[in-house]
Specification:
flat; alpha+beta; four-stranded antiparallel β-sheet
């Protein structure tokens, strides 16, 4: 549940609000809103967003307290800490709330922070990465060789800039999204594509596939190549669909 975390809720919420979600909202309540079984007012929506924001602030404070505890124990510099999310939540940016209803950036563009002073120098990786890259990164830092079934690629040694790489997301293995550079494309179960320029259209509201046909065709080709071996793709050995290694050719 998203709870009214103090003292932050006083900062984000309207003190006069006294609706059904004053203290919290849980997954069951969200699902009823999604299904249209419960109507919410604009005041309800603003308060639900305030609940969400207060929870983010609460989690941030808890993380800070956890790090201070590690420092107090004298092991912070020897600790590998990975912060990542499996998804975000929509808060009516596109008329929806919760997650599972789309592959919008609000849901799939999640943070990834890796802290390990003993094994990593501070760096910002501008290239796209995938959540499947987290496990091989941890294994690499621990000195453990990734097994054959690990699909991701270690992020150790990667830095800023370089050739634009793609990140993939899927919804029930029926809809797929690919972000690369300034663009993002979605593929429906019927095979049709939409294309968005995220730099000019962060809300993904304007499909430019008809206007930018070459870019749309490139995404179409990359989708076809990736989905051909989606369940067994080996990034460490084959690279990414937009930048294949020679091993891909030899394996196929």
């Amino acid at each position: 549940p998203w709870r009214a975390r103090k003292p932050w809720i006083e900062k984000f919420a309207d003190a006069a609000y006294n609706g059904p979600y004053k203290s919290k909202i849980n997954g069951i309540a969200v699902e009823k809103i999604v299904q249209g079984k419960v109507k919410v007012t604009d005041a309800d929506k603003r308060h639900i967003v305030a609940l969400y924001d207060s929870n983010v602030s609460y989690q941030d404070e808890q993380l800070g307290a956890f790090i201070e505890e590690l420092k107090g124990w004298g092991i912070w510099e020897d600790t590998l800490l990975v912060i990542v999310a499996d998804h975000g939540d929509e808060l009516w940016e596109n008329g929806r709330i919760g997650h599972g209803g789309s592959l919008r950036e609000t849901l799939v563009h999640v943070p990834l922070l890796v802290h390990y002073p003993r094994g990593l120098a501070p760096v910002v990786i501008d290239q796209a990465v995938n959540s499947i890259d987290v496990l091989p990164t941890i294994l690499d830092l621990a000195g453990v060789r990734a097994g054959k079934g690990v699909q991701g690629k270690t992020l150790v040694g990667q830095g800023a800039a370089g050739y634009a790489t793609a990140s993939f997301s899927s919804h029930l293995e029926a809809r797929f999204a690919m972000a690369m550079g300034d663009y993002k494309s979605e593929r429906t179960p019927t095979g049709s594509l939409t294309l968005y320029n995220l730099m000019r259209d962060a809300g993904e509201r304007s499909d430019v596939s008809d206007k930018e046909r070459l870019t749309a065709q490139r995404f179409h080709d990359l989708f076809a190549l990736f989905l051909f071996q989606n369940s067994t793709w080996q990034r460490e050995r084959w690279g990414a669909p937009e930048s294949l290694t020679t091993a891909f050719t030899s394996d196929w």
